[in-house]
Amino acid sequence: MTPPQAQEVRVLLGARSYSIWIGSGLLEHLAQWLEPLQLGPLAVVISDENVAPRYGSQVLEALCGSGRKAVMLTVPPGEPSKSPLWLQRLWEQMLRHGADRTCFVVALGGGVVGDLAGMAAATWARGVPWVQLPTTLLAQVDSSVGGKVGVNLPGAKNMVGAFWQPKLVVADIQVLRSLPQREYRAGLAEVVKYGVILDESFFAQLEQNASGLLQLDPQVLIPTVARCCELKAWVVGQDERESSGLRAVLNYGHTFAHALESATGYQRWLHGEAVSLGMNCAALLARELGQVDQEFCLRQARLLKQLGLPVQLPQDLDLEQLVQLMRHDKKAQAGRIRFVLPKRLGQVELVADVSQEQVLRALQRAQQFP
Ligand SMILES: NC(=O)c1ccc[n+]([C@@H]2O[C@H](COP(=O)([O-])OP(=O)(O)OC[C@H]3O[C@@H](n4cnc5c(N)ncnc54)[C@H](O)[C@@H]3O)[C@@H](O)[C@H]2O)c1
Ligand SMILES: [Zn+2]
After folding, report:
1. Hey, whose CA ends up nearest to atom 21 of ligand 1?
2. Parent domain of 327
């Protein structure tokens, strides 16, 4: 069988550099990308109960052979599995399977599995190599780039973690076909985000290709996922450990999104949906501050809506509570909320001196807009 066409994105981090391969039907040909890495004799595949039954055997097959063993460990689907408890259960199972420092980890799943399996890899025997096979759009364009791994503590998301870069990422867009449509669309919010913060012409392409994106047309989706990975890789390459502040641009829309998620107990919206709402709020705040015009806000809202994402804030939200939640966000400093706000399409900046009244006015406008 001839291997399918794939696009490569390099994440350049010195000795920790790695490749992301993006294409359709890549999982079948996994062995081709694994071989040059000279990985160890035991592969520990970590997945969840939605993904493992669909794609597990294919991946195990590609990993086995030439004397290598592969085992599959699964966790229940969903955010609660990204916990110290499940991390410990994985450690215990790895021990039982005879994993030592020569093993490697393969994460097969969405961002939850990626963050958890990455954490297992970062901590096992003080760190073993790992490979990511992201199966949600969010994981393909966001969580599989940049090496952030971790677990949640009760009430403190991503509180325990590490930077641990994978050796390889293979993003097979074919697997997105089994993803619930709502999850897929939520991932598109992060895609739009990259256009707004870094690349005006990419944003324009998304406008032109909205229907192709919604239909998962490989001709559209492969270059789209690749461009997102390239943009995030560029940011991460310059600020791997979030020290210079550049990596903060990726938080566009997220200060609002985190408050919205927290105010609704993480039940009402998927993360990407909250990001979509949050980007609309951020645009309106930038408008309030005179940084962008009405057309900017409308154009962003139009694309998000076209992609089936929510934009207008519902009327039943307690806006004062949202402002208080933002003041207590872990990224706020001394109660001053810092926002990543657009200056124009493709460019954002960090703004620290925003008053609570201005934030509140932006939220009020977001209940009417567009
Ligand atoms: N490390 C990072 O840089 C980073 C960045 C962004 C988000 N994250 C993390 O990612 C997590 C969210 O990730 P997510 O949105 O991928 O959620 P997820 O991993 O929970 O996946 C969403 C749902 O889709 C199912 N699923 C996954 N792939 C499927 C497929 N191909 N077919 C059918 N069902 C499938 C899963 O079982 C789950 O029920 C959060 O914990 C977040 O903190 C990490
Ligand atoms: Zn996000």
Report:
1. 110
2. 181-366
The residue from 185, 232, 338, 365 that is catalytic is: 232
- Predicted TM-score (pTM) of the model is 0.97
Beta strands in the chain (DSSP E): 6-11, 18-23, 42-48, 69-75, 104-109, 130-134, 148-153, 156-163, 168-172, 339-344, 347-351
299 lies in the same domain as 232? yes
pLDDT in tens, 244-271: 888 999 999 999 999 999 999 999 999 9
Instruction: Tell me, yes or no, if 190 is annotated catalytic.
Output: yes
Write out the two tokens for 38.
């000279």
CA 261 to ligand 2 centroid distance, Å: 11
Q: Which residue among 151, 178, 205 closes a domain?
A: 178
Q: Is 242 a residue of the active site?
A: yes
Q: Which atom of ligand 1 is nearest to the CA of 82?
A: 41
Is 97 an annotated catalytic residue? no
- Among 127, 147, 178, the domain boundary falls at 178
Please tell me the distance between residue 52's alpha carbon and the centre of ligand 2 in angstroms: 24
Question: pLDDT digits over 274-325, tens only?
Answer: 999 999 999 999 999 999 999 999 999 999 999 999 999 999 999 999 999 9
Domain count, the chain: 2
Tokens 């870094």 — which residue?
A: 198
CATH number of residue 20's parent domain? 3.40.50.1970
SS3 for 275-292 is HHHHHHHHHHHHHHCCCC
82 and 117, same structural domain? yes
